[in-house]
Amino acid sequence: MIVAHNTVVSLSYVLYDADGVLIEKAEDPLVYLHGGHAGIFPLVEQALEGKAVGDTCQVRLTPADAFGEYDAELVRVEARDRFPAEVAVGMQFQGESSAQGEVMVYTVTDIADGKVVVDGNHPLAGQTLNFECTVAAVRAATQEELSHGHVHGAHGHHH
């Protein structure tokens, strides 16, 4: 079976920054519903179209193709007393974006002088990335997966 619209694709992958420095090597396969269901970056999905098990691909992703440009307006300085006593750099909290009113994930990037700096940008925002993958498996999506728009079961979504 080949990677095509409405197939479930399993990938092993490695992610590098623009200088070739390793960012992430997947321990578990990335499993997504192929065909515009927002399960993977569109450029990666396009590169995988028509591939079979064992095939590889490499895709260079600009910030616009991946996690977006870094937005300094998503960095906020908050009073330390608004956070739990055990707050530490690297912890993540949900909060509302003042600009859009949507729930976002903020990462603590600094704690000093009674203040906590949180950043709502994805950690890889603003970076050009090199995504390398190998197709590990391809199967037809179930009707339930198609109606829900995502993969179910092992490495997928659980209800």
Could you provide a short overview of the structure?
The chain has two helices and nine strands; from the N terminus they run E-E-E-H-E-E-E-E-E-E-H.
If you compute it from the alpha carbons, what radius of gyration comes out, rounded to the nearest whole angstrom? 19 Å
Largest sheet: 5 strands, antiparallel
Looking at the structure, what is the overall shape? elongated
Distance between the termini: 27 Å
- At CATH level 3, the topology of the largest domain is Chitinase A, domain 3
| Number of E-state strands | 9
Structural class: mainly beta
Strand content: 35-45%
Order of helices and strands: EEEHEEEEEEH
**DSSP helix fraction:** under 10%
CATH architecture of the largest domain: Roll
Mean pLDDT: 92
- Count structural domains: 2
Number of helices: 2
| Unreliable parts | none
Which CATH class of the largest domain is shown?
Alpha Beta
How would you describe this structure to a colleague?
With 159 residues, the protein is mainly β. It folds into 2 domains: 7-67 and 125-148, Chitinase A, domain 3 (Roll), CATH 3.10.50.40; 72-119, Thrombin, subunit H (Beta Barrel). Helices cover 8% and strands 39% of the residues. It contains 2 helices and 9 strands. The chain has helices at residues 42-48, 143-148; strands at 7-17, 22-25, 30-33, 56-61, 75-79, 92-96, 103-112, 115-119, 129-140. The strands form 2 sheets. Strands 1, 2, 3, 4 and 9 form a 5-stranded antiparallel β-sheet that branches. A 4-stranded antiparallel β-sheet has the order 5-8-7-6, with no helix packed on it.
